[in-house]
Each structure stands twice: as C-alpha cells, then as structure tokens.
Amino acid sequence: MLSLTLSADQPFNLDKTLSCGQVFRWAETNGWWTGVIRDRVIRIQQDGNHLSWSGADEAFIRHYFSLDLDLSRILAEIDCDPVIHRAIYACRGLRIIRQTPWECLVSYMIATFTNIPSIKRRISLLCREFGNKIDSGGEPYFSFPTPEALAGSDEKQVRACSLGYRAPYLCQVAQAIHQDPGWAGAIRNLPYEEARTELMRYRGVGRKVADCVLLFGFERLEAVPVDVWIERILRQHYLKPGEKANYDHIRRYAQGYFGPFAGYAQEYLFCMRNDITKKE
Q1: Can you list the positions of beta strands (E) in 172-225?
Q2: How many domains does the chain fold into?
C-alpha cells in the first residue's frame, strides 16, 4: 500500500472526482474505490488530505488524477458568478481525470442516449468479452479492449454486449484506429476546432461525444460538452430568456464566458445539476 499527503493549497476530492460521471470503470465499497486503468486494478481511498492506494506508483496516480494541475488557480479563474461559485464551494476538489483517448472515445460512443448504470454495464460486458483478464488475486477484472481486438471482432459479438445500433460504429472506429496508430497524436496537435472536426469524421461521433473526448481524453480544458443538464443550467441562469440557441451556440457561449477552463466550469455545474436547476 502506497500513500501521499496532499498539499493544503491544492484541493482534491476523490469521491466527487470519481462519482461525477466522467469515468465509468470505478466502483466504491466501504470508502475504497476500485477501478481498472489499462491493465491495472487500482484501489484507492482518501482520508482528509491523505491518499492511500495500491496497483500503481505515485507518478501514475498524480498524472491520472491531474494532481499536478494548479486547481486553485483554475477555480479562481472560473469563479465569476453566484451560480458557479455555489458549485465550486460544494464540489471543491473535483478534478478532471486524464483518460486514454481510445478508451475515452469508445466509452462516450457507448454513453449516448442512456444512463450511467447502463453505460457501466455495457463497458463491463465489452471488456469481459474482448479484453484480457487481469490477475488481481480476487474478483476477475478485464482490461479495456484494444482497437485490434475490436477491429477483428464479429459485429454480432459486439452487439451482444447490449450495444445495439452502436455495434457497427464501434467496429468501424476500431478498424480505422487500428490502421492509424498515430491518430491520437495527430488530433492532439490540432487546434481545438480542427481536432473536433477530425473526431466527428468517425461514424457514431457527434458533437457532444467529440467534446467529451477532447475534454476527458485530450485534456482540452476549453471543451464544453453540452448535455440536457448543461443546456438547462445555461438557459436557466446564463442565456437571455427565450434566446434561441443550438448546441454550438451554447458551447461557444460557455467557452467565451468561462474562458480557457470552461470545461472545468461545465464539470462543476454538472456535479451540482440537481440543486442548480431547482426552481427558486
């Protein structure tokens, strides 16, 4: 078991970070979170400013949970009105996790038009069917399928993982990425709008999925995925009453209003979505 003491001026809230809906392969039991990252099974717990974990070294944990970012500065920059201030106060320490682009892409393709429990179940089935078993000395865990594993699979097998109409899209994107192993590096080096356009060339990747992948998989902290909750919050508290606004209008408004860390503002507002959207 390894441990570290967090800096008092750099907040981190493990529970908020792992339960806010940005990742889908973590589960909490008796205060301990267990998750699968690549081919690792990691168990981690927070007690005040003390983190304890197993399954990875400290450098991995710091990178994965973005503990090297100056979160206090980020939050100070987006704390520009009472609504976001309330969310920051309630969810302080929530950090955007650095996910691998491939797993993030597939996860959010699976995540369209469904809820978090269903997303977790589908990803679990996909990993069990196409991933590699990880020896963790207890309950069986499976790595996330590689592009090669899905590219060479039968579409019916993929569909059987409760994926329905998403199955052919996943097979096609797996084949494309398997044939282009440098895809992530190429997208990472593009300006934001161009990177977004490139992601949307993959079948099954719409505007929201592309924005999620840029935010969570490529650390483009200006990205603002707009789901029904974020649209509702922005319409209720930020846009003019009755203002006509489509997805991209809302996204660009949030980016202009909150600035280069608009993705963090989006995540904090989403974390407080139920309270923020209550009628006064």
Answers
A1: none
A2: 2
Amino acid at 163: L
User: Tell me: the pLDDT tens digits for 249-259?
Assistant: 999 999 999 99
CB 38 within 8 A of CB 143: yes
Cβ contact 231:276 at 8 Å: no
**Tens-digit pLDDT profile for residues 105-149:** 999 999 988 888 999 999 999 999 999 999 877 788 999 999 999
Positive or negative: CA dihedral 260, 197, 175, 119: positive
Residue 200 lies in a domain: yes
Nearest to 85 by CA among 77, 254, 12: 77
**Residues 114 and 183 occupy one common structural domain:** yes
Amino acid at residue number 204: G
Q: Buried (b) or exposed (e) across 27-51, using 16+ Cβ within 10 A?
A: eeeeeebbbbbeebbbbbbbeeeeb
Q: What is the bridge-based pairing of β-strands 26-29 and 133-134?
A: unpaired
Print the domain residue range for 30.
2-69
Pair 79, 268: CB distance under 8 Å: no
How many CA atoms lie less than 13 Å away from 149 in the CB half-sphere? Answer: 16
- Write the CATH number for 185: 1.10.340.30
* Cβ pair 155, 69 in contact under 8 A: no
